[in-house]
Amino acid sequence: MQEDVMASLPANCQATLTIDLPAIVDNYLTVRQLAGGTDAAAMVKADAYGMGLSEVAPALFHEAGCRNFFVANLAEAVALRSYTPDACIYVLNGLFPGHEDYFSAHDLRPVINSLEQLELWKKSCASLPCALHFDTGINRLGFSPDETVQLLRQPNSTGQVNIALVMSHLACADDEQNSLNLRQLDAFRKITSHFPGIPASLANSGGILLGPEYHFDMVRPGLLLFGGNPSASQPLPAGIRPAFTITGRILQVRELREGMSVGYGSGWTAPHRSRIAIVNIGYADGYLQVFNNVGHLYLQGSEVPVIGRVSMDMLAIDISDAPFAAVSEGDEIELLGQHITLEKASELSNLSQYEILTGVRERYQRVYIPVK
Q: Which candidate, 112, 212, 217, 230, has a CA 20 to 30 Å from the CA of 367?
């Protein structure tokens, strides 16, 4: 009953998040081309980067032909299984005691990150497929360099384990000039030489753009699927396009005299007689205060600056200039999308594109453009 009531509410009573499923499918297929036809596993952790696992995963599975997926934890993996019945699902956080039966029951694959996890898997589910994760320089998850040496010197330690994938993760893939990329590549090549015939994976979205030597047997795009640019120095690859749009509404238009201030803390003062508008999006919607006085939105064909401090549910923009003379209450405005891209928003705020994308909140009315 509650869902029926929510579905019947007017579309303009809250801000809107429009997810373009055909764009996500096309971006996936473009990634496959960028990777020279190498298999591509979709990263759909964090509710498909905030875009909705229940809609994004089936589109990638049924329409794009994706058969390998990565999520962060067991809960995400169990949810994903119901949308992708025959897919291979890898769990990046690995295996914890007491979780073994869930991996077996739902046909999930742990990404084994330590010798302890490896022993646990060997005792419980050795015949089931898993991935081995080797840390080659990011110093996050994965077998440490010392554990890697120990493991490779004792080949029998993995002899009874069904290893479906050997993987590592790049620390600086967004910076193609960083020397750590080549050091990690070299280290990973040496590791994979001990696992002949087993598929290997190193490249995330940024790694895909570093070149074919990083692609191995499987790449793992995330940000590229949603139209973000993982490279700090290269333009967004042709064929990759923004896959979502956030739009709000003008709540009120106000006239200010010179010297009047706007918002909490009086963070912006009118330098002259000004006209401002209040928009129905704030930091509770994921539009954070790092955009105070630096953010830009897109309104009626032009960019417009955010002024003052972003509130929980509202923000203010300066519409004093001539292009905005006709702006009135109820008008739609773009916060992120085709014109204010993830890349542009990141440059303005110094937030990473990943933070902006996954910071999208549930309060939006969600509209999904279906794949025809």
A: 230
